[in-house]
Write a structure and sequence with these properties.
383 residues; alpha/beta; six-stranded mixed β-sheet
Length: 383
């Protein structure tokens, strides 16, 4: 914005005026909260419904993964990052006047040396043999877990002594710095302990529970999700659902933690669409992930006339007749347009990766994308 006259004019910033720092908008975005962004979307939907611009003859729904802003998580990488963050946070606590006499060894170089050793073992896997290199990697990863446990134990001592020093902090500003550093240290210790524990579970030959597995130090809500993609068998982030109509207007969206099942999300979405438009959708279609008899029965009970969702399990002859009918095929064929809508949101409206941490942050980020998308669509319908 600083070197663009057109953007300065759009934002009402004079040519000789000071441009806000790039993080200002990010802070304001997260400060508004999920409820404020959801309120913006609700107001836009209400305005469009009042102008009779929201069609509900046909509604389609699909889910996708919103990638969290994290690097691909490995046990060794997470442990090394945890050690680095512990050391830095301990230094911040001691610089603010807390636990200055408590000893805390800097283990960053030791952790980095073991990460490089793992990388070298991976490069020479063909020479050593797969079994031998795997055993070496497991051994070094176990050493990293031991380093993380030792660093967490020393950081816990710093945390205890730092809390004792908190009432004796010299000034209000120094007390605030010390309190923030201690809070961050407590969170980092807890997450480091979890990462070390799940690493030891993997080293024991077991797989950590995906619903509780920690894949990032700064985004504790991100989870591993399998969506069956060939290029990305496992993605890390949140599961989002999008429902749109014939005009491409998004009528509902939601962001869920982890690999939430598709089926239970559809009926609440249809209820929200009915509340916003005061009309029940005439036809609802979705992919096979929603194909459960209970979902179809609940939609009919709500008042939806036509439901075109292929069943997951083996179908009976009567069900095959329904799914092979021309009207069913027509709706299922129209449903494939959801893939295009999702791709459009990813390319143009930031749904490829959330830049805000946590499920709350992901919901805020996606809500802004839906608001901008619907503004364009509804403005075109109104013109």
């Amino acid at each position: 914005m600083a070197d663009s006259i057109s953007w300065r004019r759009f934002c009402r910033i004079p040519l000789d005026g000071r441009v806000p720092h790039p993080t200002t908008l990010m802070k304001l975005t997260s400060r508004c909260g999920e409820d404020a962004v959801a309120g913006l979307n609700e107001a836009l939907w209400a305005k469009a419904a009042g102008a009779k611009l929201l069609r509900t003859a046909r509604v389609r729904a699909d889910t996708m993964v919103i990638s969290a802003n994290v690097a691909y998580p490995t046990d060794s990488g997470l442990l090394a990052k945890a050690v680095v963050k512990l050391v830095r946070t301990v230094r911040r606590v001691q610089a603010a006047g807390g636990a200055t006499a408590t000893k805390a060894v800097d283990r960053r170089r030791a952790a980095a040396r073991r990460v490089r050793e793992i990388a070298s073992k991976l490069r020479t896997r063909a020479k050593l043999g797969r079994e031998e290199s795997t055993q070496a990697i497991r051994r070094v990863t176990g050493q990293l877990a031991d380093l993380a446990d030792k660093a967490a134990a020393e950081a816990a001592a710093v945390l205890r002594n730092g809390r004792r020093a908190l009432p004796r902090a010299l000034s209000g500003q120094m007390r605030g710095r010390l309190r923030r550093a201690l809070d961050e240290l407590a969170v980092t210790i807890e997450r480091t302990t979890r990462i070390a524990a799940q690493t030891r579970i993997r080293l024991a030959g077991q797989t950590p529970e995906g619903a509780t597995r920690l894949v990032s130090l700064h985004d504790p809500d991100a989870r591993p999700i399998r969506k069956g993609r060939i290029d990305k068998p496992v993605e890390f982030g949140y599961k989002a659902q999008v429902s749109d109509n014939d005009d491409g207007v998004i009528l509902d969206y939601s962001v869920e933690l982890g690999a939430a099942p598709d089926g239970p999300q559809l009926v609440p979405a249809v209820k929200r669409i009915h509340r916003r438009t005061d009309r029940m959708p005439g036809a609802v279609t979705a992919d096979r992930g929603y194909g459960q008899p209970a979902v179809e029965r609940d939609l009919h009970d709500l008042g939806v006339r036509t439901v075109a969702i292929p069943r997951q399990a083996k179908t009976s002859a009567t069900r095959k007749t329904i799914e092979h009918s021309r009207s069913f095929h027509r709706l299922v064929k129209w449903r494939t347009g959801s893939e295009g809508r999702i791709s459009y949101l990813k390319r143009g409206y930031g749904w490829d990766r959330t830049r805000l941490d946590g499920r709350n942050g992901a919901a805020i980020w996606c809500g802004h994308g839906v608001f901008a998308h619907n503004l364009v669509k509804i403005a075109a319908l109104a013109s």
